[in-house]
Amino acid sequence: MTNTSMSTREKVEKSMVRRRAAEKRFRVYGMASVLFGLLCLVGLFGDIINKGASAFRQTVIQTEILIDADYLGINKKADDQEIRNADFEGLIKQHFKKLVQPEGRSERRMLYSMISAGAAWQLQEAVMLNPSLLGQTMSINLIADDDVDQWFKHDRGTELHNNRMNETQVKWLEQWIEQGMLKTQFNTLFFVNGDSREPELAGIRGAITGTFLTLLVTFLLSFPIGVAAAIYLEEFAPRNKITEFVEININNLAAVPSITFGLLGLAIFINIFGVARSTPLIGGLVLTLMTLPTIIISGRAAIKAVPPSIREAAFGLGASKMQVVFHHVLPLALPGMLTGTIIGMAQALGETAPLLMIGMVAFVVDVPGFVNDPSTVLPVQIFLWSDSPERAFMERTSGAIMVLLGFLVTMNTAAVMLRRRLERRW
Amino acid sequence: MSIIENHKTNGAAFCENPKLKARDVGVFYGEKQAIFDVSLDIGANEVIALIGPSGCGKSTFLRCLNRMNDTIDICQIRGEILLDGENIYDPKVDVVPLRARVGMVFQKPNPFPKSIYDNVAYGPRIHGLAHSRVDLDEIVEKSLQRAGLWNEVKDRLHSPGTGLSGGQQQRLCIARTIAVDPEVILMDEPCSALDPIATAKIEELIDELRENYTIAIVTHSMQQAARVSQRTAYFHLGQLIEVNPTDQVFTTPQHTLTEAYITGRFG
């Protein structure tokens, strides 16, 4: 019996070895998990930024073009309608024909395909803004076609079969580069245009506006309803079978796959109530269904976290139930409620699946003006672009993801700051 | 130790000019009975101390006096409690004005997370006691003065009440309670979270407040009971064992349980 000969102190010392080892092991596990998480995050951001950063640059062809009034058939007094009808596309084609001297029809077609359809609009707009340009030579950065854009940004110098430019086109492009005509500039169109079939003209403004309007509807509906429900359930509802049933179902709703809410929205809001599909209104309604449980649950948790001593103090002074709730409980619970709401809204911001069900996956070019205009939202736009065959849409997909992540980070930061400010009030 | 069968409260449970009269009060938490047939008078302008070991029901009884137990769903109360002859458990009585008449100070100082001024002004505001800003300022100043806090806080009325020390916070809570001008003040171990100096100040204050208010105080400190109260009620396992003038309870207790408690044999 050697054990009995050991003193208590020796036993404690012996057990310390094991305990210290356990503590060390746990620290290592913890650090490994954190490191893994960080690596994933860095990998994700790195990949997206790597792929998407080039979406913010657009290749343009800088050229001196004569705005030939005779060719266009308009004079300086022409009104907007006349300018709109004028053949700027032909003018550009003519200009480049003179510049490059293509031989035969197929070369001409190759040449024309290198300039974006948007170039004609650029020229048109410039003339509309300043009709005195007519008959003069102006220097303008014309948008290049997405294939040229991709070649210039990524493929220059690689094997020809890797890209969509052929030998002749590359010859011209190299010429232009020599003359300093080809360059990249900040891709403003990406932020001011709606969606387009032409990648170089496609932008996210429609999607961003749609997202904003959809989230506005979601917030205006889900915040008051969620907070009211949380307050009622927590403070006023009698504890009985019915409230218990309601509580269980709110928790269940939070776990329902989001596409189900899309089906529900389709069946009820669109088919029964006849809300127009593909609008921020219906999107907001569906996302409200999805966000409500989050807001109610976090709202109730925030109300529960208010110290009972504050309630007692107010009751003890003769405050009525309403006064206790609205003067004391709600102000203290509000930071928590806001955090829950913003988390719910951030969820809604990134939500795609339910919106597919209600037609927000449609190809919409126009920027929506109000909640009843057809529109799409940022995540659905990303989904649409990621499905497009053009290579230029790939970088635009990543670019749009970066914008979406930017919004998410901004929202979360706003949540944290708002909460700090509200909490610091006392 | 168990509940005494057919117990009759020893001593003088009733007095000449009662402000509050409790008659056969029983309190149940669900199935469990916490208080058994307590009958007790609380006289006008007196301080009555409720003492007894932990879990004896003294706090529960105190909270019956302004119906604070209403907020606990499973709590049921039998018997009647009369404030100036009117049963406060009558279905027609609204608890809101009742609690304005019977104020309460809690064990842990619990100022609102608002400014000192707003803490004191809250009661008068919700009850509409002040007709103007000047009126309200006056009530706040008077209440803080009565609570002996005015000189310490008059320069920082708009800083948070939670920034005060524990003792100051408790006096702020007392000021907040007297700002609604109640008739009775209930104090539930008001000094248990305070140091001896802060305690001494509150005790002094209680003595001064007696002129205008009726005070019932629950305390674990027998010295405190002896110092501040005129009558002392001893509770044991939900029964009111003995009520007598304070000096008598501490010198010649009638009941053996009272004697055992005050001599420190249990508690």
Automatic annotation (TrEMBL), chain A:
GO biological process, one term: phosphate ion transmembrane transport
Keywords assigned by UniProt, alphabetized: Cell membrane, Membrane, Transmembrane, Transmembrane helix, Transport
Organism of derivation: Thalassolituus pacificus
UniProt keyword Transmembrane helix present: yes
Listed InterPro entries: DUF3333, MetI-like, MetI-like_sf, Phosphate_PstA
GO cellular component, one term: plasma membrane
Transmembrane helix as UniProt keyword: yes
SUPFAM superfamilies from the UniProt entry: MetI-like (SSF161098)
Protein name: Phosphate transport system permease protein PstA
From TrEMBL, chain B:
Keyword Ribosomal protein assigned: no
Cross-referenced InterPro entries: AAA+_ATPase, ABC_transporter-like_ATP-bd, ABC_transporter-like_CS, P-loop_NTPase, PstB-like
Record SMART domains: AAA
Gene Ontology molecular function: ATP binding; ATP hydrolysis activity; phosphate transmembrane transporter activity
One Gene Ontology term, aspect cellular component: membrane
Gene3D superfamilies, per the entry: P-loop containing nucleotide triphosphate hydrolases (3.40.50.300)
Residue ranges of every copy of the ABC transporter domain listed in the record: 20-262
Keywords: ATP-binding, Nucleotide-binding, Phosphate transport, Transport
Pfam family, one: ABC_tran
Name of the featured protein: Phosphate ABC transporter ATP-binding protein PstB
Organism of this sequence: Thalassolituus pacificus
